[in-house]
Amino acid sequence: MRYLLRHTTHYQYSGAVTLSHNEARILPRVLPWQDCSNTQLVITPIPDRMRERIDFFGNRVVYFSIESLHESLDVTVTSEIVTHPRASADIFSSISWEQAAEELRHDPRQTNRDALDARLYVLDSPFIFQSPGLADYARSSFTPGRNLVDAVLELNQRIFSEFTYDPEFTTLATPLQDVLASKRGVCQDFAHLGIGCLRSLGLAARYVSGYMETLPPPGQQKLLGADATHAWLAVFVPGWGWLELDPTNGCVPDERYIILGWGRDFADVTPLKGVMTGGGDHSLSVAVDVLPQEEGAQGQVRDLV
Amino acid sequence: MQHLANLDPAVNAILGDYPGHDGHDELLSDNQQPRAHWQGVLDDIVQLGPDVLAARSEEAQNLLHENGVTFNPYEDDPGQLRSWQLDCVPWVIPTQEWDVLEAGLKQRSRLLEHILDDLYGARRIISEGLLPPELIYTHPGFLFSAADDPPQVERPLLIFHGTDIIRDSLGQWQVLADWTQSPGGAGYALENRITLARALPSLYRDAPIKRLAGFLQAQHRCLASLASTHREQPNIVLLSPGPGSPGYFEHAWLANYMNFSLVEGDDLVVRDGQVSMRTLGGLKQVDVILRQINDPWCDPLELRPDSLLGVPGLLQAARCGNVHIANALGAGILEHPGLLAFLPSLCRELLGEELLLPCRETLWCGDPAALAQVRAELDGWVLRDISKPGRLYRADQMGLEALRDLRISMERHPYLFTAQRHIAPAVAPGFNPQTKTFERQSATLRFFSLVEPDDLTKPVNERNYRVMPGGLAWVGEPGAPLMKSRLVKDVWVTAPVPQPHISLLRQALGPIVVTRDGKDLPCRVAESLFWMGRYGERLDIRGRLLREALARLLQDDRQESGSQLMPDLLRALDIAVDPEAFADESLPANSRFPREYIVTRDRLLQLFADDLPDGLPAIFAHFVRNSRAVRDHLGDDTWRAINSLRQHFNSMSRTRGVVVGQRHLEAMVLDLAAFFGLCNETMPHHYGWRFLDIGRFIERTLGSLELLKLALLDADEPGIPLWEVVLATTDNLTVYRRRYRSQLHPLAILDLLLFDETNPRSVGYMLKRLGRQIAKLPSPGSSPYRNLEQRLIIQATSCLHLVDIETLTDLEGSPAAREALSNLLDQLIEPMSELSNALSHSHFSHVEAPRQLVSMHYTGQP
């Protein structure tokens, strides 16, 4: 699939900011199934300093600072993205989930690099802590000896069907226990929840941030800015690799999903964070467009760029 | 007492009950003879004799106390003051033994640097299975943000390294822990050495011991050559968490000794990719940061977002090589106790060498075999949980419930736990000044190593380290933290021949550029000096008033002349007395102490109480807090005056009697005079001193004006007794008597205290002095006009100069004269009150706490 991506973040401050240091993780990763071209990052006011680097997780990070008085901040990224089918389409793994957990356990003789790397994602992270409650929730899908992929897909489906998408309910700080108890949340909570369940069973799971193409209601034109940032997760299947899951939509991500980056949880891939001096209160608005590059959409695309 | 054969009876006397220990003994060999390297020390000690030694020991204690040497985080609270005891008997290490230790310590530093270099670089030791990922990635000292791929600048990460070592009962050295963020104690080691050398010159001066000063010189050279700009005078700062942190004494000490600016997070700002210090003259670029803040707190942008100690953007500045941080951010991972279990294999793998210094037996519970072993014999181990730093778990000392919780935690997160074997320590001698004999001690030793200054630019496998030939020892159970110790020791490394005495004052390192304190004074320091001046003066004014009030109280009592003066004095001290209290029948009264006397006395003495917001201890606490924040700007003698004050305040809150109270106040007034006198005599008369002086004189002007207002206008009982108090409070009674030799007259008092510019206690003099000081402050812009501060001074001075003195002559008789004086005083008070704010606005940094764009409240472990 071919997309034009545009993601704008706008901060309006009630007072003047004298100095701000920021980190943005909003440049999409280049992956075997994902090409990015003509990626542009426009920041207003123009940053005094800007540096890009690759972080621990392989994500693209842009540091920038704005050192003169400003009352708003505008960060816009545009990119042309081509996605190809992921390998997950033909996944076949006969490994049981207990075997998978065993592979990830500490063993001084273990030298498989992928398994060693994956072990980071079994551990607790800033937002996600293993707990018996999470393990209990997962266990009805993870019956003894069950095939890992089957169990994981069922868990994904269960979160999708048993939980209600409710943007009013959660904040960044909602603990997983509350999400589990109320069965409500947003994509980020469901991704965290899925990860927490898998890690509580000794499996490795990571947080993926990105976008997804949404379709307008039948017969209507797609509205600009109607898309949103999205979050899902990936689980490590030993001997095969990372299998993505989207519990918010109960599916396995395909070509319609664009990946920004991944980490242990949201804290590692926060799209935009910063520390500023001054500024008072601030209001935030975000607009995301994931526009399929088809003949009919060309006009729109030109308007956007 | 167990006497040893073949020993001098004098030696036996001082050994006391010491001999007779089974395990390894530092002093006595297996056949209970003093070891060769102790012979010289013992001879000197015997020659001094136990009484002299006890006296000298006490002297060393006083020196330490006066210099304010302390680890104590609660120093501001006079009740909590405690500094440690310094044993006058050192821990002695002979040359041959030192050579072995030194080689082991150097290797250890090299090994840790290799590990660090790899963990924040290729991470080969993890991907090849040498170190389990769970060990590293669960430790808060591993900074994911510092683990960029690939690292952009090749540089040493581990500049200093502290190693805690103990000698076990078999005589084997065992490493207990490594300190790799900002190893503390080198400054204390030097301070101990200096103190003991002063108290026991005969023991120290000619002893063949290796000297320490050279190591700190090398440290300075090392930091200076880290600066990438290679400027002649790189700007090196010591970044401290502030006066509230336990190691603050050492931070100030090191900054002073090394001639670095002592800064806190607020003093630094990252602009244009550079780290700069906010100074009176604007921003000044920083080249090297010697940081004393732990890893996660250094940068709220990339590390802990809730840190108020750090500098936003610091990590990015370091990443680009625009500032060098010693030790590098992320070095804290090496403090992981579980790492000890892996060092032997890592040493073989990374250095191709066998590990020379054995570590304390350590098991990392993330390894299932280790976990099984620890669980099976839980009592035999001391456990640590890296998510709860500083806590030790000893199964044999835990209750059932706590033990169950511990087992559950270990089951759930085994990789967070490290088990270390108990150690039976060797004994070493210490001198007990009470019994005047030796006693057995076990101590932990800390040694310090430093990357060779010449090796900074070499690749990691060619970098070498040097070790300070001496260290710090503290008495306690093996592994007990230094901060909790009460008794410390000097560590001697003997040299084959007596060593030349090196002055502890640093010699010029290369061509010296003559510098003078100037505009690079951090704004925060200027502000603290200003407030130190104000609070110090406030303490003086209130102390003097209270002293007068107590004196009148005693007089009244004796003469039974009633206490007409008291209500006015109480008002001057802002003490409200409910008249009904005098009628309170429940109070004991007798002919000697009328009820009124008791009530008044108790109210006055309340100013000594700790909990009163404007009591003397509260003002003193403000004064000390500001003094501590500028510790590196105050001379040793000046600091001694503060410590002397502090000792008075320690016992002040318990004051119950008027005479005792008077004595405290006498001492306080003298110490304050000594303090300000020393400031004037020893501080360079530059910006810092000017701010101190301005603070003092603003406070004094306001104090004098309020006092005049009360005595001449608002008093219930105006008249000679009250005027006398005013003169006594301002210490002008003698001057007045000499000048007028007559009855007190209000106009003469006014002349002396308002107009006479030759009298340092007059408002006229004070305004003149303030005007002079303010004119010499740096002015940020180059405006040709007078700034607000200068205008305020001119405003006050003009009012004073323009007043028609004739209108004030008949203060007692004419309401018009009283009104004229009232107007004048108000016209003086107003601009002086405003002056403080104006100064603060122009010169002090008003750093708003930086805030997060997205507030990320980590939920924390449920």
UniProtKB/TrEMBL annotation, chain A:
It holds the Pfam family Transglut_core. It comes from the Bacteria. Gene3D superfamilies: 3.10.620.30. Residues 179-249 form the Transglutaminase-like domain. GO terms for molecular function: peptidase activity. Keywords: Hydrolase, Protease. GO terms for biological process: proteolysis. The keyword Hydrolase applies. This is Transglutaminase-like enzyme, putative cysteine protease. It comes from Halopseudomonas aestusnigri.
TrEMBL record, chain B:
Residues 90-475 form the Circularly permuted ATP-grasp type domain. Transmembrane segments: none annotated. Pfam families: Alpha-E, CP_ATPgrasp_2. Residues 521-844 form the DUF403 domain. This is Uncharacterized conserved protein, circularly permuted ATPgrasp superfamily. It comes from Halopseudomonas aestusnigri.
